Every structure is written in structure tokens, then in C-alpha cells.
Automatic annotation (TrEMBL):
CDD domains: HATPase_Hsp90-like (cd16927). This is Molecular chaperone HtpG. Keywords: ATP-binding, Chaperone, Nucleotide-binding. The keyword Lipoprotein does not apply. It holds the Pfam family HATPase_c_3. The lineage of its organism: Bacteria, Pseudomonadati, Bacteroidota, Chitinophagia, Chitinophagales. The keyword Transferase does not apply. Belongs to the heat shock protein 90 family. SUPFAM superfamilies: ATPase domain of HSP90 chaperone/DNA topoisomerase II/histidine kinase (SSF55874), Ribosomal protein S5 domain 2-like (SSF54211). It comes from Flavihumibacter stibioxidans. InterPro entries: HATPase_C_sf, HSP90_C, Hsp90_fam, Hsp90_N, Ribosomal_Su5_D2-typ_SF.
Length: 606
């Protein structure tokens, strides 16, 4: 029997390691199983090139529990190790790796490293009082047994083992008894080992799918296969909109499938994240630095051997490969969207409601994506019948919707039902009104005005239709100055919580008698106030700014001015103003009640 001391300087580094990795204890199982898988894969390779002789037989990895002996065993039928190899890879290499880890991270904030650093074989000591390795190499060499109880001393002796391969026997320590429970082990296996490339068995059942969709060739897969794999990942989700199969081998290796989920509620975002794998071993679902931020809304799997198992945040951020992977994913996603848009615009439009969220978020946050997305970003008209790209919208509106600064004015509605009267007035003038009604649209509009220097957005109810593109001077009014002044006074009675500005203009006799509008700027400030910050509460506290545009050319004013009875005049103008406010959703509470009472009274008189 050989006895020795593991080559580490620190007297006893096990307690330190245990403390360091406290919150992510279960990664030991991932580490040990991926070693077992590596050993199995190596054997397959050696056998295929004729270096390992004979039948290779069943190659599954078996995890077993012995409640009485309080052990957890990971057995593989891979290459195994000779005594010399154990000495070299376990006594020297594995432990020097652990030592290096300690030196590197000593004194650092442990939260930064926990969960982002795999420790290989060594991590088994996080949960064990004692670890045994019983292994027999595929080479002609006696089987050996290695044992270590967590002090730097180990024992190594010859033993007998019938089958080729390695058993790692963990004598689970007092604090880690949970790992002697089958359910706990199942949960860990399900998290880390679901897609390992070699069959893994626990309690007689195979726990993994060794050939998940992303490892297969896109040409071999049907849409049903992609859908089925999505279900495997997220059993409770609705079918995805579509997917992108990533397959890169230069300048880095990357495979994966990204799915665009159907999003109905904003709170659902980010519930199921993209999972990151390295050679089918689960690494993390914290993909923040690898996947561009806007694509974090996607789901699915990314697998790259260039992303090491023991990833740490700071490592990822500084890694040039990671930056390349990030750019590549952005490009791929943009290309795929463009392809679908070009090949099957109808399908693209049908899915726009969910898809638009990704696209707009991407356009706001990533200039490279913006450049590409301009070709397939679309806007639907308020009637819900037609979609325009920016280019198409510009072409359709070039004659009517260019303002005096030469900017194209995009007229939009946020609530087609409530803004119906305004939409009608604008459409009657020949304007194209599009819907921008989702949660990202307010921010999207602000951002795009900065990025698209030739575009200006105006909400359909921001002004009377005549003024949506440019403020125009009033055309001739049939009222004289005195009458206009009289009308203005009648309309200027201020209701509570609103600040009314009144202007009398000579518009078309067919246009509405009064229109209430909210200046675009004020309204945007108020909308933002509803969600954020100290400036927010400043704006939120201000009364709603409303412009009442009175159409002096409407015949009703001849009637009102002729009425003589000032009480009656007031009631009629109040009613007209209230109708206009009502269409902007600004008539509430007592004001609404008095409007109803007044209307009934006026009808009785009429
Ligand atoms: N089940 C096994 N069968 C054969 N060899 C093994 C087995 N487990 C470990 N080894 C050998 O021991 C070495 C050290 O293992 P360890 O897990 O510490 O590091 P690693 O696998 O090289 O790297 P990582 O830290 O990424 O896991 C391995 O490289 C391998 O040569």
C-alpha cells in the first residue's frame, strides 16, 4: 500500500473549500458525473481508433445510494485509471488545481465565485467525510483503490475490480445527509444531467436524453421535433412562435436552439431562461454576459465547449470569445427574423404581437440589431388591417405627413377604441394611424426619435387633426372677434384637476364642434411619471393639461350665440366641452355625473 500526502501547501484546505462553496453544494454531482461521462467518451474514441481492444459493451453511468452504509456511488465503465494515473491526476493534478483555485480567490467576496466555479473531483469533499476511488484501467493493469478522508493524507492500494471503469464512493458527511435521499438526487440529476451524452441511470431508470435536439443536424429535424424539445424544456408553456437552430464551428464552437416564446403578460418575461451547457453538461441559466440583453427574453439552450464549466462572472465579461458569441447570436437572430419576414410575411405579421416585443427591445438596446431590424420592424394600422415597415409607411405618407422641418410624422394610437374619434378625424384627412399600444412602445417611441433623425412621432389625440403634422394658421372663421371672445369665455370654465386652454378656430363646418387634445410632450411626461422617479412625482402632481379647440365654423355656435339666455349658453358649451373631454377619458367622478344630469336637462328642454 502506498501512503502519501497530497501536494498542497495549505495544511488542511478542505474546511475552507467547504465554506467557500456552501450555497452550491450540489455541483459535486455534476462534476463527478461529467468526469464519468468524459471517461466513457474517451473509451469510445480509443475503441474507435483501435487503441482500446475488445467489446466495449454497455457504457451507461450508474448512480446508486446505500442508505445503510451512507454512501453515494458514481460508477462508469469508461477508461478507468492505473495506479500511476491516480497518482498523477488525482494526487497531483486535481489537488494542485484546487490549490490554485484557493490562491486565486482567497479574500474575495465569496458571492462572486459561488456557483461559478467547478472544482472537479475535489468538490466531492464538500459533502463527504471520506472518498474512495475504485478503478480499473482499460489497459492491462491491476485495479486500485484510493482513499482520502479530507486531510491531506491519502492511501493507495491494489484491489480487485471485475469491470473496467471507475467507482467513486462518497461517504456522505453529517451535514449533507440530504444527498442520501433519492428525491434530492433526482432533482440534482434533473438540473445538471438531463442532456448528458451518455445514458445515466438512477434507481433503475434512465434520467437523461443523450441526444437532445440541439446536438442533431437541423436537416434531420422536423418542426414537431423542435416543438417536442421545447416541451421537454418547459413542459407547461404554450408552443413557441418559432426557433433558431445555432450551429457555428468557427471561430468558436457553438450549438443551440433559441425559441421565441409566446408572451401574453409582461410578468411572464424571464420566467424560463436560456440554459447554458458545455458539451451537454448544464452550466448555468445565468446567461447575462453571453446572450445580448434583449435576447434574454428568448428561451432554449446554448452549448459551447469554449465556455468552461467553471465559469465565473468576471471571467465571462473579460473573455473575448464571449463577446464574439454575443455578437454572433445577435446577428443570427436578426438574420433569421429577416428570413422569415421575407419568405413568409403573413406568418411574421400574425406573430408580430409577441415578436414585436423582442424586436423593439432589441432595436432600443443594440445598434447592430437596430440596423438589421429596420428592414423587418413593422407597424400595424389602427384598423388592424395593414402592416407597414418604416420604409413603407414613409412611402405611403410622404405627400401628407411631412412636417415643415422635413420630418416624417408617424401618427399613432395607443388605444384604438378610446381614441376612435381622433383616429377617424385623422384618417378622414388621409393620414395613416398606426397602433403602438404595448408595454415597450412608450420607451420605443422616445428612443427611435433619437435614432431615426428624420422621424417624429405624434399621438393621434395630441392635437386636432389639422395640426397633427404641423400647426396651421386658422382659416377664416365665420364668427367676428367679439363672438369668438364670447365663445372662448364660455368654454374657459375650469373643471377640477384639469387645466384647460381654449382656442377658437375656423375649421371645416363638418369637423367636430370641440376637440380636446393633450399636448404630446405633457402627456409623455405624465405617462413616464406613472412609472418612475422623483421627477415622476413632480409631473404626476400637475393637473392634466388639455387644449380645447373650438371650431367656430360649426353651425351649433350660431344657435348657442343666438340663445340669449346666458345660463342656457353655459350649459350647452359645458356639454360640448364635456363630450370632448369624455373622448379623451378625462371626464370622471362628479364632473361625469353633472354631465349626465345636464344632458338629460338639455334634452328635456330641447
Ligand atoms: N471517472 C473517472 N474516470 C477516469 N478518470 C478520471 C475520472 N474522474 C477523474 N479522472 C481523472 O482525474 C482528473 C482530474 O479530475 P478533475 O475532475 O479534478 O479535473 P478535470 O476533470 O480535469 O477538470 P474539471 O475541473 O473541469 O472537472 C481528470 O482529468 C481525469 O484524468
Amino acid at each position: 500500500m502506498q501512503k502519501g500526502s497530497i501536494r498542497v501547501q495549505t495544511e488542511n484546505i478542505f474546511p475552507i473549500i467547504k465554506k467557500f462553496l456552501y450555497s452550491e453544494h450540489d455541483i459535486f454531482l455534476r462534476e463527478l458525473i461529467s468526469n464519468a461521462v468524459d471517461a466513457t467518451q474517451k473509451l469510445k474514441t480509443l475503441s474507435s481508433i483501435g487503441e482500446a481492444k475488445g467489446e466495449i459493451g454497455d457504457l451507461s453511468v450508474v448512480i446508486s445510494l446505500d442508505a445503510e452504509a451512507k454512501t453515494l456511488t458514481i460508477s462508469d465503465k469508461g477508461v478507468g485509471m492505473t495506479g500511476e494515473e491516480v497518482d498523477k491526476y488525482i494526487n497531483q493534478v486535481a489537488f494542485s488545481g484546487a490549490e490554485e483555485f484557493l490562491n486565486k480567490y482567497k479574500g474575495q467576496n465569496e458571492n462572486n465565485i459561488i456557483g461559478h466555479f467547478g472544482l472537479g473531483f475535489y468538490s466531492s469533499f464538500m459533502v463527504s467525510d471520506k472518498v474512495e476511488i475504485i478503478t480499473r484501467s482499460f489497459r492491462e493493469s491491476p485495479a486500485v483503490r484510493w482513499e482520502c478522508d479530507g486531510s491531506p493524507e491519502y492511501q493507495l492500494e491494489e484491489t480487485t475490480k471485475e469491470q473496467r471503469g471507475t467507482d467513486i464512493v462518497l461517504h456522505i458527511n453529517e451535514e449533507s445527509q440530504e444527498f442520501l435521499e433519492a428525491d434530492r438526487i433526482k432533482a440534482v440529476l434533473n438540473r445538471f444531467c438531463r442532456f448528458l451524452p451518455v445514458p445515466i441511470f438512477f434507481e433503475g431508470e434512465q434520467v437523461n436524453n443523450p441526444t437532445p435536439a440541439w446536438t442533431r443536424k437541423p436537416s434531420e429535424l422536423t418542426p414537431e421535433d423542435y416543438q417536442a424539445f421545447y416541451k421537454e424544456l418547459y413542459p407547461y408553456n404554450e408552443a413557441p412562435l418559432f426557433w433558431i437552430h445555432l450551429n457555428v464551428d468557427y471561430p468558436f464552437n457553438l450549438t443551440g436552439i433559441l425559441y421565441f416564446p409566446k408572451i401574453k403578460q409582461s410578468y411572464e418575461i424571464q420566467k424560463d431562461k436560456i440554459q447554458l451547457y458545455s458539451n451537454q453538461v448544464f452550466v448555468t441559466d445565468e446567461v447575462k454576459d453571453i446572450v445580448p440583453e434583449f435576447l434574454m427574453l428568448l428561451q432554449g439552450v446554448i452549448d459551447s465547449p469554449d465556455i468552461p464549466l467553471n465559469v465565473s462572472r468576471s471571467y465571462l465579461q473579460g473573455d473575448p470569445n464571449v463577446k464574439k458569441i454575443n455578437n454572433h447570436i445577435t446577428k443570427k437572430v436578426a438574420d433569421k427574423l429577416e428570413e422569415i419576414f421575407n419568405k413568409n410575411r403573413k406568418e411574421f405579421e400574425d406573430k408580430w404581437e409577441s415578436l414585436g416585443l423582442f424586436v423593439k427591445y432589441g432595436m432600443m438596446t443594440d445598434d447592430k440589431f437596430l440596423e438589421k431590424a429596420e428592414k423587418f420592424h413593422i407597424m400595424q394600422d389602427a384598423a388592424g388591417t395593414e402592416f407597414y415597415t418604416l420604409e413603407e409607411y414613409k412611402n405611403a405618407t410622404v405627400a401628407l405627413q411631412k412636417n415643415k422641418d422635413g420630418k416624417q410624422v408617424i401618427i399613432y394610437a395607443t388605444d384604438p377604441v378610446q381614441q376612435n374619434t381622433f383616429i377617424k378625424a385623422a384618417t378622414d384627412k388621409g393620414y395613416k394611424v398606426v397602433k403602438l399600444e404595448t408595454i415597450v412602445d412608450a420607451a420605443f417611441i422616445n428612443q427611435m426619435e433619437m435614432k431615426w433623425s428624420d422621424v417624429h412621432f405624434t399621438r393621434v389625440d395630441a392635437d386636432i387633426a389639422d395640426n397633427l403634422v404641423d400647426r396651421q394658421d386658422a382659416s377664416a372663421s365665420v364668427l367676428n372677434a367679439e363672438q369668438e371672445e364670447q365663445l372662448k369665455k364660455l368654454f374657459e370654465q375650469q373643471p377640477a384637476g384639469l387645466h384647460l386652454t381654449v382656442e377658437v378656430k375656423g375649421l371645416s363646418p363638418d369637423a367636430a364642434p370641440v376637440v380636446a387634445t393633450r399636448p404630446e410632450f405633457m402627456r409623455r411626461m405624465k405617462d413616464m411619471a406613472a412609472v418612475s422617479g422623483p421627477m415622476g412625482s413632480f409631473y404626476a402632481g400637475m393637473p392634466d393639461e388639455v387644449m380645447l379647440t373650438v371650431n367656430g365654423n360649426h353651425s351649433i355656435y350660431q344657435q348657442i350665440l343666438a340663445a340669449g339666455d346666458s345660463g342656457q349658453q353655459e350649459k350647452m358649451t359645458r356639454n360640448l366641452a364635456d363630450l370632448a373631454l369624455l373622448s379623451q377619458g378625462l371626464l370622471k367622478g362628479a364632473a361625469l355625473t353633472s354631465f349626465i344630469e345636464r344632458s338629460v336637462e338639455l334634452m328635456e328642454k330641447g
